[in-house]
Amino acid sequence: MEANSLVKILLVDDRAENLFALEVILARENYLCVKAYSGMEALEILNREEGFAIILMDVQMPKMDGYETVELIRQIEKLKHVPIIFLTASMDSSVQIFKGYLAGAVDYMIKPFSPAILKAKVAVFVDLYKKTRELLVQKEQMKTLNIDITERIRFEKELTEARVFAEEATRLAEEARIKAESAARIAETAVKSKQHFLSNMSHEIRTPINAIIGFTNVVLNTKLDAKQKEYLNAIKISGDVLIVLINDILDLARVDAGK
């Protein structure tokens, strides 16, 4: 790979304006941006072309979303180690993050994202891609050139460093996956506990309130003076308001539970 050649980046998004925005952000860099408007088109391009340094993938796409597309990409031997960054406008739970890492992504960026941060992240993976390609070229050259032992040792050292770097990146990705999985379990437990608490609390409070309202109605039907009726009516009105509030809490619990 020549030093001045363009580095290929695959941009995958079903919205043309999003692809255009990514092209604008990366325009001043030495990149060749290839666009795909769907997961299926991305797979066709990857099967047809080679040499992509990184893939920027939108999560939410019709027919085949980002998760499904990445899972299919990872099944292709030559694409197993191509870094993929998910771009998404909706990331409201650690469950989704864990799902993305499990599918094979190396990172997430939430829209709207910082152009500077996106460029920095892309630059890291492009630099790794260039170094890996340079090392592979050097390895091929060593097969045909009679170089001295010092150059051979230097090459092996650089190759080892690149391998250690790749292993460290894999280890960090695995740690992130484990943390995301743990966070997902904690979040799920917290949601269930909240739903259980709201439901139980509402039922427990509604029972005595109903009793108060019921007995208030019974007493109101007895012989009372004006002041007594005024006080009892105030109690009944307050009880009715409490019942409405409790029913709202139950409705909120049902909404959270997806019912």
The low-confidence runs, each spanning 5 or more residues with pLDDT under 50, are none
Number of strands: 5
How would you state the average pLDDT, rounded? 81
Rg (C-alpha, Å): 31 Å
Please, what is the oligomeric state?
single chain
| SS-derived structural category | alpha/beta
Topology pattern, helix = H, strand = E:
EHEHEHEHEHHH
Can you count the helices?
A: 7
Gross morphology: elongated
Biggest sheet, spatial arrangement of strands: 2-1-3-4-5
Name the helicity range. 55-70%
Our measurement of the CA-to-CA distance between the termini, rounded to an integer number of angstroms, reads 57 Å
Characterize the biggest β-sheet.
5 strands, parallel
Share in β-strands: 5-15%
Sum this structure up briefly.
With 259 residues, the protein is of the alpha/beta class.
Structure overview:
It is a single chain. This protein has seven helices and five strands; from the N terminus they run E-H-E-H-E-H-E-H-E-H-H-H. The protein has helices at residues 16-25, 39-48, 66-74, 94-103, 115-144, 149-220, 226-256, and strands spanning 7-12, 31-36, 52-58, 84-88, 107-110. The chain has a five-stranded parallel β-sheet with strand order 2-1-3-4-5, with helices on both faces. The longest helix has 72 residues, at 149-220.
